[in-house]
Amino acid sequence: MQEGSGILKEGFLVKRGHVVHNWKVRWFVLLQDRLLYYKFVGGKKEPSPKGRILLDGCTITCPCLEYENRPLVIKLKTKTNTEYFLDSCSREERDSWALDITGAIHAGNPVQVQQLHLMKNSFKLPSNISLNHIVDKMHDNRHGIKLTPNTEQGNTYKESFTGSVLVDWLISNSFAASRLEAVTLASVLMEESFVKPMGARSVDAMRNGDLAEQFLDDSTALYTFSESYKKKVNSKEDLQLNILELSGTIVKQGFLTKQGHKRKNWKVRRFILRAEPAFLHYYDPTKEDNRPVGGFSLRGCLVSALEDNGVPAGVKGNVQGNLFKIITKNDLHYYIQASSKIERVHWIEAIKQLT
Question: What is the reported pTM?
């Protein structure tokens, strides 16, 4: 079987292990009939796949909210009932993978592929479900919606959730069959004063949008429970982070490989680029913790692409291609590898605009 041809999509995802349920970053390659995954060592994909997921008869669940601290998981269940959990770096990336994998699963059935892209407008709440029942479930300590600190334009809203979190939750609890249905239902919850907007974006949309645009299925629009329904959040859940550093608008995020400062080994990290204030933070995608493992201010930084011929100075190991370097104001050197030339260009351009 030819594994190298007909690639539909490739990139990093974080996969849950089968035996030990730990999370590991793998390089995934989507073909017409299967999904291959590879170990990525020292800035290179290993030549043979570590495993494969056959897509014939596979079912996909997205969003999959089985992991409280990983809201961006896709679940694949094969014909033989093996379950795979794959985590992504952003909602856009998750939805893009889900759409492409679903397209590959249904490739023999173009009508179904077409239906994926078309959402029906005729949503009615099933007669056997009341809004109060939904709201009670939303407040459930174990399976409800978790209130967390979120920042918007420098303001921190301690007990809030994003529009996309509510939409994901409504779908995963079978209250809605599509994102469009879930947005309609969320608008009704807001209209009936069970949910209220928080912060400029969502308040603006409620005031100025027509009914279809009043609730935002968006990871930056903030909402909370209305006063009478508010839950108490444990103070230990309040993040003891430098709020200012993490309060900027997210400009770009994705998986990149970074050389360590001390051991000089290469590890895949989830990078988040923020503006106002301009910071680049990186996170360990294998950990459940939402806190960055490192980060720095971009003010006064220099960023440049590194030569693709041979291994550049400062780079350890047999890593080459798609590398770039960031030198901070304090003369710290960061060596980072993108997964393609075009991705490197996009990251460098986005960083340069903020230095």
Answer: 0.67
